[in-house]
Amino acid sequence: MEKIVLLGGGGHAKVIIDLINACGSYEIIGIMDAQLASGVSVSGVTVLGNDSVLPELYGKGLRNACIAVGSVKDNSKRKALYEKVKNAGFLVPALIHPSAVISGKSQIREGAQIMAGVIVQTDSTIGENTIVNTGAIVEHDCIVRSHVHICPGAVISGGCTIGEISFIGAGATVLQGIKIGSNAVVGAGAVVVKDVADNQTVKGIAAQ
């Protein structure tokens, strides 16, 4: 079994730990989190220290890292951590919960995290370091770019595009063929009926 280290020890990390344990493909050797004291346990996994431990672990032969930091509206920290570990030579494997349903004709890029109960339909692409969270649905022919967070219960209808670093709130619905720009925010429960520009925040029914 390959070994992996987690960056981040909060609530998202707990979900990731359950996902990795359910998959059985990796042994988690520890967590790196500057906000937690070394030696503290998170869901049975020990905190090793902060990011400064990375070179030491790499020198010992560790090659797999996981970005276990979640996001609320702002995905820039996840992006920065992903780029940091990639530049240090680590692999960031895609993680897919066994209960997720992924079409064999869709593509899941490096570092993507597909949580329990997710459905990704045919001919869709999930970008690098993107979270598709619990119970979310990505329909056919969607392009979800890098560092996106699709929150629990969101529905992305067929033929949509979601730009880099964007955030789709819990329970939001994006209607067929909509294009959402980069660094955009869609509020929880919103129904998106028209395109969303880069850096725009929309909320409500219909979202505006």
The second-level CATH architecture of the largest domain is: 3 Solenoid
Structural class: alpha/beta
Assembly category: single chain
Task: Give the beta-strand count.
Answer: 23
Q: Calculate the mean pLDDT score and round it.
A: 96
Strand numbers in spatial order across the main sheet: 6-9-12-15-18-21-23
How would you describe the overall organization of this protein?
This protein starts with a strand and ends in a 6-residue tail after the last strand. The relative contact order is 0.11. With 208 residues, the protein is of the alpha/beta class. It has two domains: 2-87, 3-Layer(aba) Sandwich (Rossmann fold), CATH 3.40.50; 95-203, UDP N-Acetylglucosamine Acyltransferase, domain 1 (3 Solenoid). Helix 1 links the parallel strand 1 (2-7) and strand 2. The strands form four sheets. A seven-stranded parallel beta sheet has the order 6-9-12-15-18-21-23, covered by helices on one side. It has helices at 11-23, 54-59, 76-87, and strands spanning 2-7, 26-32, 41-42, 45-49, 65-67, 95-96, 101-102, 107-108, 113-114, 119-120, 125-126, 131-132, 137-138, 143-144, 149-150, 155-156, 161-162, 167-168, 173-174, 179-180, 185-186, 191-192, 201-202. The mean pLDDT is 96.
